[in-house]
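Forwarding these from the shared drive since the link keeps breaking.
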Amino acid sequence: MVRLITHNLLACHAKGCTTNNFPLKLTDVKLALREADFNPDFLRGFLPRVEWDALIQASREIGDTSLPVERPEMLDDDLLRQLHHVLLEIHIDEGSMTCPNCGHVYPISNGIPNMLLAEHEIW
């Protein structure tokens, strides 16, 4: 399932697309909310790997404005719960991700991103 935690790790890998290929722009999304167990230790451990600007951009693209624009230095319980919700409970069931560099579109169907490329698009 595509969640923003997953989206934050994806970049375009089409042939010749090596710069400005992250983050993929989310469009025409259909969202679902699915509860997940709150694990603050997981969030604290994963947060250093999160590209904050990309997370904020993606969350805004799907209509969520709950996270601060600047990466917070302190993680209180409220912020951890907001992160948990944005990263783990918002699911993208349908839509697409588009490369900002080459414009390649990766469709999302039934919560699964199709990251496969045609033979002529492969390195």
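-- next protein --
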Amino acid sequence: MEKKNNKWRILLGAVFLMATSAIGPGFLTQTTVFTQQLAASFGFVILISIILDIGAQANIWRIIAVSEKRAQDIANEVLPGLGYVIAGLIVLGGLAFNIGNVGGAGLGINVLFGMSAEMGAIVSAVIAIIIFLVKEAGKMMDRFTQILGIVMIGLTLYVVWTAHPPLGEAVVRTIVPEKVDFLAIVTLVGGTVGGYITFSGGHRLLDAGIKGKNSLPEVTKSAISAIGVASLMRILLFLAALGVVAQGLTLDEANPPASVFRLAAGEIGYKLFGIVMWAAAITSVVGSAYTSMTFIRTFHPFIEKYHRFFIVLFIIASTLVFVFIGRPVKTLILVGALNGLVLPVSLGVMLIAAYKRTIVGDYKHPLWLTIFGGIVVILMAYMGIYTLVHQLPQLFE
């Protein structure tokens, strides 16, 4: 019974690690801004992105489980050296986005207690570091992300209730949108399963020993559930913002998600935003640090042995950059664009690996998953390349 409960805890931990890794400061801002632009039709964007997210994540988690190897090792077997390239991009992207995550945590504390964002970031970093220094770090990480994930959803649900969104219109426009924003779909997919995020839960299950063909039903269910948790938060935030926008109220461009909470529920709502922002940011700090380091652990026995020390260094480095430099916007955008290419490359590699007997043995990968994955690869590759070629040069002129 205890063994079964422990396995359930690990599966649930992987679900919330992935989901809360996706729900960061950028997630909150993207959802609010796109709701302001597309109104109820943003529901259609969310629906399509959920389908694509499931296609990407179910493929990746299953292939990691059945091969019993981390993504970078699978990539190196498909094409020698490719695993090092992907790992490099993941770590760079994770570090860049972690600067934003630490900053978001600092902002959350600033809203709650009036402390400076820099000092709030340092306090948050210390909390994140403590999680990885305790004896049962994995268990602590699982419980931490679960509790804060539930808190975020619960508080946002309250704000939805106070915002009184037009639910009927939201349902209709989710099926029959007035307008479709292709870039919004790709942005949401990248923000949910892009970069390190989709690998967080898959690598967590592998580290906890949940792997092999016999575990595939549980792994698939866990992968889809993780998308479900992240999507539930996305839907609630969309409805809260829609309720505010539908009343003709204008969101503050400097901090759109904060203004949604404040306009919907007054000063209490603003304080609730502080809690949600801190919870979203700190869990993303934990997820980013853990997952980024899983991509280099297998490269050398020294890194494997002292991986917790490297996780701590990762958190300290991103905190120091935020405190002393701030958020280097152009660098973040550049790394973000490069990170957008990680998903099509890594997912493409996984789909190839699924048909190599040297990697997956006699496992037969479902055709529908391959087709789903292929669509995500093509879509994300096109948009990633388009951004690098057409949009980034303008930024650096």
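The first helix runs from residue 2 to 22. The chain is about 80% helix and 0% strand.

- D.
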